[in-house]
Structure formats: structure tokens, C-alpha cells
């Protein structure tokens, strides 16, 4: 049903062994067991909860996909809830995938809702640092957190590139397109989602650092967990700054649109005023009553001169005031 690994005295001894053997291995003081479950049922979790002494509330939380990132500490184990993140550059959407972990003194059980949470990346991090395996479960938990926080960092880095593209389009010659508006909206929504994922990780990792004595060597693994905590802080600060920047870009878009509209209205109004003068003059001379120059060529020339002089005067006045 799931993947398994057995470490003994800091050395990987076996993997892929039957799940039924897990209960035997965890009884050995020198053994550390990892057991992964993907989309398990409640019965599947209850079957191992008796072996590991898992709290029922922790089992219920593992089955829920909308848990916030957290670390709950129980008498016999800890429960960790995390989310990996992946940013879709094309659509501007952020995909988050939940995983839970039961942490005991010599066992780590990971529970994933789907294959989208890449457990292969977690295993890769364990294999890259085999020398840390001697620290027991703390080594396994660090690899899990390292993958999760790295996914947050990759997502916020990809978002930062998108924000830079939006910044360049703000003061461009062309008006903001519907596509740019959609990207801005999707990016802001993704940043809000990422912030909800990253922010609680600070408390979870900080609690894990303080309770590190429950899962392994405090002195040796503390710097590694501290490094993960620093990465969480950086991702949080970066996410907050990008969210503020996207809000400013959106406000600037609206301001630029308003300014362009005001400029267009100003030009249209100015040209309407210029056109209104000839219309007034021709309307005056179109009266069906005698007027100065009526019936004489001089009347035509007087009206023409008035139209030209008034139009040129208005044009120069509007041009001087930057209305045209």
C-alpha cells in the first residue's frame, strides 16, 4: 500500500519491505522506520494508530485536506501538517498539496492526499545527506520540511519574476490590456494563498525546534532546523513584500487608466469647444433676417475670418495649457 524504509544505527538497511513488518521494526531501539501512505482510508490509519499510539484527533486531522499548517504535540507523538506549493507560470495560479506526518521517537509516517505531493523529492533529500541519518527521526523530518520550504521558495521566486514583468507594463506606451489585468488578479490571489501556507510554518518549525528532544539529537540537528526556520522567514517576508507590490501595481494600473481617460476627455472637450465657435458663427449668419454684410460678399469674408481667428486662438490657448 505504501513505501517503507528502515534505518538502523544511521544506515539504510532496507526499503520496500511489507507494511506488516513495520510493527516489528519499531520495537527495536536502534531502528528508525519511515512509512508513507497515499490517499489512505480511515480504516488504514486506524490500523497503524494502535501500533504507534496515535491520538484520534491527529488521525482525523490527517484525513482532512483543509488543515492549516501546524504542529500538534501529543503525549506519545507529534502531528505535522504541511503544504507543498507549485506556481503555474502560464495561468498565474498556485497549486498547493497537503501532507501530514505522525512523528514518534523512532518512526515517521507520512500521509498524502495525492501523488502531487512529491515524496520522491523528499526521499532525494534523504539520500543526498546520508551522514545525517544517525540522528534518527529528526533527520527524516528535516528532509520533509526542507522539501516543503523549498517549494514555497521556488513558488515565490517564480511570482517575483511575474511581478517584474507587470512592473514593466505599468508605464508602457500601450494601455493595460485585459490579459494584464487578469494576470495581476490571479497573481494577487496566488500570493494570498501562498501567505496562508507560509505564515503558519513559522510557528510549526519554531515549535519543532523547541521540542526537538522528542525526535532525536538536539545539538546536532538544531542548526539544520534553524536553517529551515530562516528560509521560512525569508519566504514569508518575500511573500508579504510581493503582495504589497502587486497591490501597488494594481492601484497604479487604475490610476493610469483614470489619467488616460481624463486626458482623452480633456482633448475631446477642447476640440468640441473649437468646433463650437464655427458652428456658432455659421449659425448666426444663417439667420433668416438682415445682418451686417447681408447680401454682400463682405459678409462671407467677415464670417470666415471670425471662424479662423477664433479657432486658431482657442487652439493656441488650449495648447499652451496642455489641453491638446
Please tell me about this protein's structure:
The chain is an alpha+beta fold and 324 residues long. The protein has two domains: 254 residues, Beta Polymerase, domain 2 (2-Layer Sandwich), CATH 3.30.460; 58 residues. The protein is built from eight helices and seven strands. The chain has a seven-stranded mixed beta sheet, with helices on both faces. A hairpin with a 3-residue loop joins strand 6 and strand 7. Helix 5 runs parallel beside helix 7 and helix 7 packs antiparallel against helix 8. The longest helix has 68 residues. The radius of gyration is 35 Å and the shape is rod-shaped. The chain starts with a strand and ends with a helix. 30% of the residues are buried. The model has no long low-confidence stretch (mean pLDDT 82).
Summarize the structure.
The chain is of the alpha+beta class.
Layout: helices, strands, pairs:
Elements: E1 4-8, E2 11-15, H1 22-25, E3 31-38, H2 42-52, H3 56-63, E4 70-73, E5 78-87, E6 94-103, E7 107-112, H4 119-128, H5 137-170, H6 178-210, H7 218-285, H8 297-320
Parallel strand pairs: 3-7
Antiparallel strand pairs: 1-2, 1-3, 4-5, 5-6, 6-7
InterPro entries: CorA_cytoplasmic_dom, CorA_TM1_TM2, MgTranspt_CorA/ZnTranspt_ZntB
Organism: Microbispora corallina
Main location: membrane
> What assembly state would you assign to the polypeptide chains in this entry?
single chain
Q: Could you state the CATH homologous superfamily of the largest domain?
A: CorA soluble domain-like
Enumerate the spans where pLDDT stays under 50 for 5 or more consecutive residues.
none
Instruction: Give the class-level CATH name of the largest domain.
Output: Alpha Beta
Our count of helices gives: 8
Amino acid at each position: 500500500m505504501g513505501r517503507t524504509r528502515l534505518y538502523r544505527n544511521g544506515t539504510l538497511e532496507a526499503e520496500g519491505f511489507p507494511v506488516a513488518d513495520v510493527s516489528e521494526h519499531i520495537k527495536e531501539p536502534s531502528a528508525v522506520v519511515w512509512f508513507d501512505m497515499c490517499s489512505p482510508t480511515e480504516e488504514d490509519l486506524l490500523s497503524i494508530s494502535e501500533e504507534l499510539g496515535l491520538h484520534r484527533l491527529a488521525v482525523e486531522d490527517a484525513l482532512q485536506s483543509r488543515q492549516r499548517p501546524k504542529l500538534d504535540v501529543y503525549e506519545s507523538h507529534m502531528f505535522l501538517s504541511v503544504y507543498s506549493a507549485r506556481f503555474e507560470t502560464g495561468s498565474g495560479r498556485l497549486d498547493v498539496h497537503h501532507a501530514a506526518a505522525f512523528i514518534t521517537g523512532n518512526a515517521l509516517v507520512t500521509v498524502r492526499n495525492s501523488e502531487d505531493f512529491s515524496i520522491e523529492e523528499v526521499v532525494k533529500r534523504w539520500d543526498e545527506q546520508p551522514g545525517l541519518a544517525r540522528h534518527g527521526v529528526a533527520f527524516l523530518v528535516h528532509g520533509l520540511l526542507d522539501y516543503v520550504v523549498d517549494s514555497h521558495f521556488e513558488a515565490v521566486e517564480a511570482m517575483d519574476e511575474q511581478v517584474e514583468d507587470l512592473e514593466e507594463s505599468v508605464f508602457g506606451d500601450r494601455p493595460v490590456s485585459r490579459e494584464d489585468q487578469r494576470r495581476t488578479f490571479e497573481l494577487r490571489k496566488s500570493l494570498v494563498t501562498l501567505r496562508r501556507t507560509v505564515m503558519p510554518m513559522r510557528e510549526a518549525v519554531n515549535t519543532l525546534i523547541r521540542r526537538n528532544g522528542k525526535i532525536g539529537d538536539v545539538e546536532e540537528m538544531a542548526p539544520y532546523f534553524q536553517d529551515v526556520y530562516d528560509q521560512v522567514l525569508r519566504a514569508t517576508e518575500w511573500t508579504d513584500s510581493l503582495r504589497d507590490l502587486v497591490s501597488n501595481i494594481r492601484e497604479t494600473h487604475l490610476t493610469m487608466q483614470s489619467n488616460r481617460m481624463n486626458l482623452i476627455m480633456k482633448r475631446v472637450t477642447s476640440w468640441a469647444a473649437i468646433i463650437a465657435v464655427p458652428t456658432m458663427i455659421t449659425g448666426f449668419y444663417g439667420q433668416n433676417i438682415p445682418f451686417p454684410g447681408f447680401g454682400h460678399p463682405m459678409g462671407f469674408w467677415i464670417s470666415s475670418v471670425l471662424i479662423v481667428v477664433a479657432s486658431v486662438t482657442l487652439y493656441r490657448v488650449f495648447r499652451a495649457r496642455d489641453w491638446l
